[in-house]
Amino acid sequence: MLYGVMKVAIGAPLKAAFRPWVEGLENIPEEGPAILASNHLSFSDSFFLPAVLDRKVTFIAKAEYFTSPGLKGKLTAAFFKGVGQLPVDRSGARGAGEAAIKSGIKVLEAGELFGIYPEGTRSPDGRLYRGKPGGLARIALATGAPVIPVAMIDTEKIQPPGQVMPKLMRPGIRIGKPLDFSRYHGMDGDRFILRAVTDEVMYEIMKLSGQEYEDIYATAAKRQIAEAKKHQQEQSES
Fold it and tell me: What is the rounded distance in angstroms from the CA atom of residue 64 to the CA atom of residue 86?
């Protein structure tokens, strides 16, 4: 009920203002479970993708969005619940991963769509980074749900870091054909299989998005960029 209200209140104006173009909507099943595995360029990815789909898609979000105190906290929690976000406690890396997997499996067992960003975090520079094998692959193999690769395009240009007002421009969304990993059923404990599944999905996302691929994790890239900026600042001050 709340999701439907929020979709009208947020999704409709979002589509009207930014007019996102979409390719491959026919690849989204009309019913039944499926995993939408997308690249991650912007905070707005979790809004643009649901806005163009007829079906509800559920993503995970950090628990802090749901537990902040006061009126603002309650409104924030209501907003994220309304747009189909599930809270996950990220206080511990291992616990966060397990919580995300359990959440994804629960959504799929209910016959719904589950959205996940295999890179684990937003790209710091627009490139596509190595997918983390723990979440996406384990959920896919545990449920047997098809994995649908999705490419968000130009969403990072709408509101770059430090820019207050978003730029009115048309982002794009390309939705690929479903990938079937039933051949690996029962092998979700094999790290080589998990890696192979993840890499296959990332390859399809790369083809859809046209992004340059970097074979390191986005979290490592962010550390490298931060260290480089710090070094540059130290050099300029010396």
Answer: 11
